[in-house]
Amino acid sequence: MRHKLGLIGFSYLAGLICAEFFGTFTIGVFTVAALLLISAVAVIKSGKSASTAVALFTVSAAMSVHGIYTLTVYIPVIECAGKTAEINGTITDVRYYGHDTAAYTIKTDINGAETGINMFGEDNAGEIGDNIRITVKLSLLKDNQRFAEKSYYKPKNIFLSASPKSKAEIIPSGKFSVKKLLSDYSDYIGQKIGLLLTGEEGDILNAIFLGDRTGLSDGLSENIKRSGVSHFTAVSGLHLTLISHIILLIISLTPLKRHRYLKFSVLAVLILLFILFFRLSHSVVRAGIMLIIYYGSEPFMRKSNVFNSTGAAALLITLCDPYACTDAGLLMSLAGTLGVGAASTAAAREFGKGRFSTVKRAFIASLSAILCTFPLSCVYFGGFSAVGAVTNFILYPLFLPALACAALFAMLGGNGSILIFLAGLCAKGMIRIINLFGNFKYAYFPLDYAFIAPVSFLSAIFILLVHFRFKDLRKTLKAISLSVCVMLFLTAVCDIYFYDKAKLTMYSDGDDACIIAEHMGSVFIAVSDDSPKLLQNINDYMKNNFIEEVSALTVLNANHNAVSRYSEIPCKIFIPPETQKEVYTDKITLYNQSDICTLTINGISVSLSPAKDPLDNNIAVLYGYTEKALNLSGTVFVSSKRLDGAEGCENAKNLYYEKASYTVTANGFLSKRNQG
């Protein structure tokens, strides 16, 4: 049996992912696991392929572990949501913000299960490693448009957020912590880069080297996604691989190069330190394990293999945390590594020969990584970049020296300003290229259909089965092409299905709300206030849906003094605040009066108004705030304020930093299209 470690690692990962589809239905998980175990035993008794038996047994074991973990850890923890409790735990991570506030990650025991919680509140001088005792109200983490909070933290064994209800009692640990030291040093390097590069180039360099995207403008963040280079701004295996090459280059200049065991030991220790420097992200941990296995093969006289090393990394990470199987960074990192290490190597042997072979191989590597991560990109980011391969190919010559200079700057203790200056020049060039490709109209294709996730998962399994069954590059490429064609076909079918139906999209920034109604080329937009955040949402929506002009745009209030920026949106009719007007097409009617706007789509009315009782049979989008319980009378109610637990709000849909999309049929029937 070839590639034993890779087979076990990826089978275990596949089992955990399958178990995730069942959610908390652990009975189903255990049932399927038992059936797979019986199948594995049957295969062994029949004397057939040992690989099949090992794969079935490993998948069964993974599903069982996932079910046990859900029953003993996850469910007991989330049952405490909504309760007030005193917690006593250890601070594992701290991020400081302005106005004496900070975000803490606390490792504690909740309902007999050890887990992590996120707490945002007053900066109480707590540091990593300190013990903390505080009374908090626990809440479930939720995904929203701005940040997929639950999806991001669940793979990190963090299931709840906490609101402080008392003064925190901090008990310093008094122990030396390497993790705290390197975490503080990471913050120090980020601050130094920000001081030396005060423009956008400093922000993008911090994103490239440290994964800190907080300084990026909304426009630049959107163009990074559209141009298909989001992986550049997420600390990944590429960072650690480049750093390991720099370390090896330095070691080659010292006497250590003649002592293979000592050389490997120094390299392994430095890799582990950089894993802590990059705050233990799953993709970096995966890369660290892979690199240690890869470089360890030389002194221990073993042949390295990309499939085995990635499988071992996946196994080690998910053994510690079964929910890590859904971490976007880990899965895309694994897929990209297999794309570059396996798929591109095979493709280069076939297509990378002749003139300009170096250029061909570089392009093939970039294209292979993009194709292998394509299904995951559709699932996690709701779309794909059509210019990603070209943009990556052009940006690599600027990205690599920028990352190398930043890494050397960190290794030199934050000295060597010339390195950051050179990195800044590369970053400036990257920004221009990213904006050039990101602003291209058809650079990015959003896919917000329900079939994307299951079809992408099944496509990945199909491609892997074809590859390992036939061991033929051409057949693997045909499987990839067939999967892409199926995805495009289903997308076309859905577009035809929604052709004569209106699309209703609602946004909120927490204070103000926005409605976008689209039907047969007519686009109507109503905004409760001239909020800059909602303006960015509108611009992104128009860019992602290839809309060059809207039929009508109305702004009800002008509290932000940004009406002039709204008037720059290309539209046939712009209705400024305090203007009464009625505009309509064949299917959509917009009536604007004072601070109330009503959109009527196929007989369904959508009201945008100050916080008050909504009208019966309408969908009401409210802004503002009210302490008074709302009487819904069966109305579907969408609010721009959080209403969790509010009396009379059983039908409420919170829109705080969220996007909600619905379809309105010709008969006036409303159905959910997608929830972001």
Write the layout of secondary structure elements.
Blueprint: H1 4-21, H2 26-46, H3 50-78, E1 84-97, E2 101-110, E3 113-122, E4 131-140, H4 149-153, E5 158-164, E6 169-171, H5 178-196, H6 200-210, H7 218-226, H8 237-251, H9 260-277, H10 282-296, H11 306-320, H12 328-351, H13 357-381, E7 383-385, H14 388-411, H15 417-438, E8 444-446, H16 452-470, H17 473-497, E9 502-508, E10 513-519, E11 522-527, H18 532-544, E12 550-555, H19 563-566, E13 571-575, E14 581-584, E15 588-593, E16 596-601, E17 604-610, E18 618-623, E19 637-639, E20 652-654, E21 659-664, E22 670-675
Parallel strand pairs: 3-5, 11-12, 12-13, 17-18, 18-19, 19-20
Antiparallel strand pairs: 1-2, 1-4, 2-3, 4-5, 4-6, 7-8, 9-10, 9-21, 10-11, 14-15, 15-16, 16-17, 21-22
Helix pairs in contact: 1-3, 1-11, 2-3, 5-6, 5-9, 6-15, 7-15, 8-9, 8-10, 8-14, 9-10, 10-11, 10-12, 11-12, 12-13, 13-14, 13-16, 14-15, 16-17
Tell me about this structure.
- The protein has 676 residues and is an alpha+beta fold.
- The strands form four sheets. It has a seven-stranded mixed β-sheet with strand order 13-12-11-10-9-21-22, covered by helices on one side. The chain has a seven-stranded mixed β-sheet with strand order 14-15-16-17-18-19-20, with no helix packed on it.
- Strand 2 and strand 3 form a beta hairpin.
- It is globular, with a radius of gyration of 27 Å.
- The chain starts with a helix and ends with a strand.
- 40% of the residues are buried.
